[in-house]
Amino acid sequence: MLRKGITESFGSAIHALSTAHLTDGVIKRSKRMMLDTLGVGLLGTRTSVFNKVLQYSQSFTSEDRSTVWGKSNLVLPPCLAAFVNGVAVHSMDFDDTWHPATHPSGAVLPALLALAESLPRQPSGLDLLLAFNVGIEVQGRLLRFSREAYNIPERFHPPSVVGVMGSAAASAKLLGLSPTQCLHALAIAASSAGAPLANAATQTKPLHIGNATRRGLEAAQLAQMGLEGNPTILDMDSGLGVYYKDYHPSAMEDSTSSEFKWILESQDVAFKRIPAHLAMHWVVDAAMAARAKLENRVGKFDLDQIKKVTLRVPPSKYIDCPFPSTEHQARHSFQFNACSALLDNKVTVSSYGDDDRNRPALRELLAKVKVETPEGNEPSFDKMYCEAEVETEQGQRFWARCNTFYGHWRKPLSQEDLVQKFRAHASSVLSTEGVDGLIDIVANIEQEKNSSLLGLYLRMTSSQIEQLYRPRKNADCIF
């Protein structure tokens, strides 16, 4: 029997995976990912970048209509609904992060929800959950083709490459495509891959997620119509390999093989507590710990008495921004996040707004910051650390180090805190009924016969659809 090529093996696996292959661990983790993605996406509908892409997308029409999250009377063609909702998810850089580095959920879930609403037969919640996990799995497999991918990126934004492939795989699965069609969906999606990291810390970065989820969906739909691409796109250095200096692809195991294991089973994601680049969580926790030591000794944090702040962080040019002038630069600045934490003893959504960001006190403290990149502090979300040292005018030094922040896959958010995060974000857009309904549906997604109920709750900005709300006891705890 001839051995399958790498791309062929992916097409076969995407087609063959079934709900019977889902494990309890994968179901639990993926439901957490779905809930968090919906929450940060709903919060993101309040941002300027979301409103810009929404205004653009409203100029297009089609017979098929899909929900725009957080909008009670607004629908768009499925690919554009996926686009704007994907932008919303990443508009504050608040979405989950995986290892090797990418934002896995935002590239997949908006496409699936938009597609599900447009299908003649509404998929079940279990169908949606399977397709979501197929999209996540494909991203994880592709990231492991390169050792370069394990580090904080330097040249391109990973979701723009593996995210569009994950969206294509997930959409192909939900559409029920054949192995050959799944293969071509990946090939078509590869021609929409890639976004330069130079657009990080700008309003364009959220479009990387929006484009990934949209173009992956379109690739699957085109493959369904018979469009073909290179059937060895994953096998070739001139295929997906163009993005990596050390590309070593490998086949995806047959789902019937005992060797098949979901990557999500062994590698959890990180959930963010602040709307910023993941690395900022380390420096924020280190800064707050250093401040606590200072307050224990001298009584209070007095800016006038601070002589110097030293940050020891991993080397990464695009998150070293001494004086950010925009909210997006601030979300990618070690200096800004450390100084916000030192001044306020917290970092919140409002920390990145104009009023907080342009405070004279913050500018004064930023001028006192020195950044060091010690040898051995690797630019990897699995290995990095951050240190903060505050020196006073009296010569006192207060030092703290963060090796693992709360929310990292080594120290995961509790279910209670994850649901609390979702409530805080979703309630800024939806009614209480909508918020509780989404928690309930996601908690029991594998039991839902009709996944379109998610769209109904995502539009519930008032209590007009209260009769659709079906509360279950202790829904917050069912995961």
Q: Which sheet architecture does the biggest sheet show?
A: 4 strands, mixed
Binned, the helix content reads 40-55%
Whole-Å distance between the termini?
43 Å
The Cα radius of gyration reads 22 Å
Class based on secondary structure composition and strand pairing:
mainly alpha
- Strands side by side in the biggest sheet: 4-3-5-6
Indicate how many domains the architecture comprises: 2
SSE layout:
Elements: H1 6-16, H2 24-44, H3 48-57, E1 66-67, E2 75-76, H4 78-90, H5 109-118, H6 125-143, H7 162-175, H8 179-190, H9 205-224, H10 263-266, H11 280-298, E3 306-312, H12 327-330, H13 334-344, H14 354-357, H15 360-366, E4 369-372, E5 386-392, E6 397-402, H16 415-426, H17 432-443, H18 453-458
Parallel strand pairs: 3-4
Antiparallel strand pairs: 1-2, 3-5, 5-6
Helix pairs in contact: 1-8, 2-4, 2-16, 2-17, 3-4, 4-5, 4-9, 5-7, 5-9, 6-7, 7-8, 7-9, 8-9, 11-13, 13-15, 16-17
Write up what this structure looks like.
The protein has 479 residues and is mainly α. It folds into two domains: 6-265, 2-methylcitrate dehydratase PrpD; 278-402, 60s Ribosomal Protein L30, Chain: A (2-Layer Sandwich), CATH 3.30.1330. The protein is built from 18 helices and six strands. Strands 4-3-5-6 form a four-stranded mixed beta sheet. It has a two-stranded antiparallel sheet with strand order 1-2. The relative contact order is 0.14. Residues 463-479 have low confidence and may be disordered. InterPro entries: MmgE/PrpD_sf (IPR036148), MmgE/PrpD_sf_1 (IPR042183), MmgE/PrpD_sf_2 (IPR042188), MmgE_PrpD (IPR005656), MmgE_PrpD_C (IPR045337), MmgE_PrpD_N (IPR045336). Belongs to the PrpD family. GO terms for molecular function: aconitate decarboxylase activity. Residues 10-242 form the MmgE/PrpD N-terminal domain.
